[in-house]
Amino acid sequence: MTDRSDHKTPDPGAGNPGAPDPGAAGSSAPDPAKRSPPANDDPQPRYLTSLDDLTGPDDNTVGGHAPMASPGHERRLLSRLRDIMAGSGHADERLGKIVQAIAAEMRAEVCSCYLRRAGDILELFATVGLNPDAVHKTKLRISEGVVGEIAASAKPLALADAQSHPSFAYRPETGEDPYHSMMGVPILRGGRVRGVLVVQNSARRTYSQAAVELLETVAMIIAELIEMGAMVNRMEVAASASDALMPMRMAGQALTPGMGLGQAVLHNPRIIPREIVAENPNQERERLELALARMLTALDTMIAFTRDIAGGGEPLEIIESYRMFANDRGWLRRIREAIDAGLTAESAVQRVQNDMRVRLSKATDPIFRERLSDLDDLANRLLQHLSGRDSAATTLPDYTVLIAKNMGPAELLDYDTSKIVALIIEDASSASHVAIVARALGIPAIGQCRGIIEHVEPLDSVIVDCDHNQILLRPADEVQEQFLRTVKLRARARAKLKQIADLPSVSQDQIAISVNMNAGMMIDMPHLHDCGADGIGLYRTEVPFMVRNNYPDAKAQEEIYRAVMDQADGKPVAFRTLDIGGDKLLPYLPPNDETNPAMGWRALRIGLDRPAMLRAQLRALLQAAAGRDLRVMFPFVSTVEEVRQAIGLLDMECARAQRLGHALPGRIDRGVMPAASAVAVNPPAACPSIHARCSA
């Protein structure tokens, strides 16, 4: 019922523990998103309380083989690399010494380093074990060969028999014929692939996860050497990635309603550690603990701010769960272990985050991917505190369109949101935490716009049109003028509508028509009275479930529903019971693999299969009403028998409340949202004791 399309637009005159480790290289561990559903009589689904639930326990071996890199080897290698980096000589010479040290300490017969050049070419820059004449002569395209695949995916790869891999590309000049096993990791800097680091052995060996992590750490050091030594001309690489700055239209998915016009500001919180190897591990530990304390204090301040602007509810729950992850024992333990192995605090945070990103990116569950975005945010935030910066947020122009690859909810709150007219997040979905917070702040937001980071330049003019799921980059002046005229017309229309919002809704023949609004969060409730609606015709109860990390019990649900009724202030609210499944996944319930999940195990079917869940929700609704009228709607009904079973559970909860002496609602209206495909076979008239409303 509300329209935020003119929000902040300038006027025309303005300028699971115990499971196999899914991250182990070469492993075939099951996807954590494919666990079996809980038993039917389990009222409390499994909680997601630790990052170990997402990644599984650490595992230093794969396939039963001994680790390739022990803690002693790791410390010794890092110490040697620190000396090499501090020494004299050209960058090429130091790179040659680094690959020799890696081969010696990791018991590898071959160690090679490929660097990325213009035209997406990977060139062999240094090697020990391969033919030295191949240096600067052997070249591979991105995605060509195993090395090219590692660069294309930006993920490590460990193979016991690389020559049998479908991507293997033979280069006779290298003399690599005798070598079968191979492990490679991308060399990353600033989120971009700068090269690939590879070790090889003639025996078919299975590389351990510890070895993969050690090689990733060394790759961080090489990335720093590449930057310091300017081994590849920066302009050469940048030239191949540049785009003509022409007007462009890009499609996306609206995350929140509205429109905005402003200047592009790129969100890039990544801090790249300058020092990789620590001189004093104890001192690094102290720095870590101090930075953690500062970060937690800042998050507490953010929680208080969120409570003030949103009045509690889902946005506050998101930030509170975010703080819970900041105290996660598994995450902090991994960072402390990396420091004990000889890394600086900054490089330890980056190493652990790189590892978590690889592990979680393998999960198909979008909930896990959302956790990955939160963890990226936390790691970047901790790096900021280690570097002495309060936040990555920069000073914004008055009319800012903030653009990010991904973003956590706390990162958005770091900015002066009064200056943000729109938000673009390349990887976000409508269920993402940052989208929910943006909606609470009234910021138009759009996501799922692949590649926008590569096409936009800072301070470009950008139009975000959530109504039509589109983004206009660098629009012509006449397009901007037309956009501003449209915004002004919409603002006038809204002003006129507000003038008649409180008038009775009647037809010309004096038939009264009830006009209701939809809602799903506490932030929606104030609009009920502003827009003049008679009530809430559909309250989506699943939204609070989707933003939590564990299942809310009946007491927590009761508090939510009571607050909704209190804010409705006597106006009717139709509560739809949980409509989950399909594309609405909960982090603590495993997805159900189906050919057509939208028409399968979802909504009321889940409630009837898990009656303890449905009964807990109905109990909470009854207790929240306590003398007030209650409207309950059951979603995605396909048979009359399903309606009877659902009403039976409601009657059981009414009987229980009466038996315990609890106050019952003054009146209970029961309704359904039948699946459209089922209406013809089982028309609503077959069950006259309910109200029906079709759903897709």
* Average pLDDT rating: 77
Q: How many whole angstroms does the radius of gyration measure?
A: 29 Å
Query: Kindly, what is the distance between the CA atoms of the first and last residues, rounded to a whole number of angstroms?
Result: 21 Å
In total, how many beta strands?
20
> Given the C-alpha coordinates, what overall shape results?
elongated
Oligomer class? single chain
Show unreliable segments.
1-67, 239-244
Proportion of helical residues: 40-55%
The spatial strand order of the largest sheet comes to 7-14-13-9-10-11-12-8
Beta-strand fraction estimate: 15-25%
What's the story with the biggest beta sheet? 8 strands, mixed
Structural class: alpha/beta
Put simply, the count of helices is 22
Description:
The protein is of the alpha/beta class and 696 residues long. The protein has 22 helices and 20 strands. The strands form 3 sheets. Strands 7-14-13-9-10-11-12-8 form an 8-stranded mixed β-sheet. Strands 3-2-1-6-5-4 form a 6-stranded antiparallel β-sheet, with helices on both faces. Strand 5 (181-189) and strand 6 (192-201) form a beta hairpin. The longest helix is centred in the middle third of the chain and has 30 residues, at 281-310. It is elongated.
In short:
With 696 residues, the chain is of the alpha/beta class. It is 40% helix and 16% strand. The two termini are 21 Å apart.
